[in-house]
Amino acid sequence: MKNWIWLMILVFFSTSCGNSGSKKMSTDLVNNPSSAETSATDSPQIKFEKTEHDFGRIIQGERVTYQFKFTNTGQSDLLISKVSTSCGCTVGKYPKTPIAPGKSDYIETSFDSGGRKGIQNKTITVLTNTQPNITTLRIKAEIVMPENN
Questions:
Q1: Which of 41, 101, 108, 123 minimizes the number of CB atoms within 10 Å of its CB?
Q2: What are the residue ranges spanned by the domains of the chain?
């Protein structure tokens, strides 16, 4: 019985550690702007005029918007693949087409203060083809109750 257990352990280790049957990944599939083949100056770069916006005091139920202006300061097309928000009360709209080097555009954020009160801090996460590929934008507001006449 002992010999059988040792045999099973030996078979397990001899087959699990071998790489002879594995396929190798092609380096053609890896496109990392930080690699030696691609200069960081050739890649797109996103530069925001500002990454935070304070709406100040707004009345509960009010909907407000702000456009974060950005410029592609790199040497190739900038692609925004996704914009996500930290809350369902915040929506981010972004350009779906490539932004050429030197060109500017906007990410529009809308905040619905309905059902909220007090100080609110929300984040908008922008995923791009830049290095680093994530930029975080922030909005905040102080929600006050409407006055009853």
A1: 41
A2: 45-142
| Tokens, residue 25 | 């990944």
In angstroms, the Cα distances linking 37 to 24, 27, 42 are 20, 11, 11
Q: What is the pLDDT of residues 80-137, one digit of tens each?
A: 999 999 999 999 999 999 999 999 999 999 999 999 999 999 999 999 999 999 999 9
More confident of the two residues 9 and 70: 70
| Integer Cα distance of 101 and 144 in angstroms | 42
pTM over 0.70: yes
Number of H helices, E strands in the chain: 1, 8
What is the CATH architecture of 45-142?
A: Sandwich (2.60)
